[in-house]
Amino acid sequence: VWTESLTTWYKYLHNNSDAGMNELIAGIVSKPLPPEPTPLTSLPPSTPTGTPASTSGAPGGNGTASPTAPAGTTQPTSKTSTTPAASTSKPAGTKPGTNPDRPRN
Q: What is the pLDDT, as a whole number, of residue 45?
């Protein structure tokens, strides 16, 4: 049954001809299958890159995963967009659920 389906698709892709199909199948069958993957049974341990922030005010963690800059240096600031946001407000005097362009009765 699978050979009929394979032949149909092979002919569709090869101008209604099955020439070379047997060689294709023989080449595929002659290659060994890859090894079966081993199942993942446990995750490897992870190491935190930062230390937790201290909530008691005592010295401790820095509260960040990124390294801190040496004293006397400044971190580069990221540029923010200066384009104004699109307005989503309604014209004055309109109620929610009403259309200001529609004439009232």
A: 76
Quick one: tokens of 31? 């290659």
DSSP state at residue 83? S
Q: In sequence order, what DSSP letters do the residues of 37-72 get, joined into one string?
A: PPP--SPPP---SS-PBPSSSSS-B-S-SSPPPPTT
Digit-coded pLDDT (tens) for 45-95: 776 666 666 555 555 555 555 555 555 555 555 555 566 666 555 556 556
CA-to-CA distance for 98 and 104, rounded, in angstroms? 10
For the four alpha carbons of 78, 81, 82 and 86, in that order, the dihedral sign comes to negative
- Phi and psi (nearest 5°) for 51? -115, 150
What b/e sequence results for 30-45 when a residue is b if at least 16 CB atoms lie within 10 Å of its CB, and e otherwise? eeeeeeeeeeeeeeee
pLDDT in the model for residue 81:
55
User: Which pLDDT score, from 0 to 100, does residue 44 have?
Assistant: 73
Contact between 18 and 7 under an 8 Å Cβ cutoff? The reply is yes
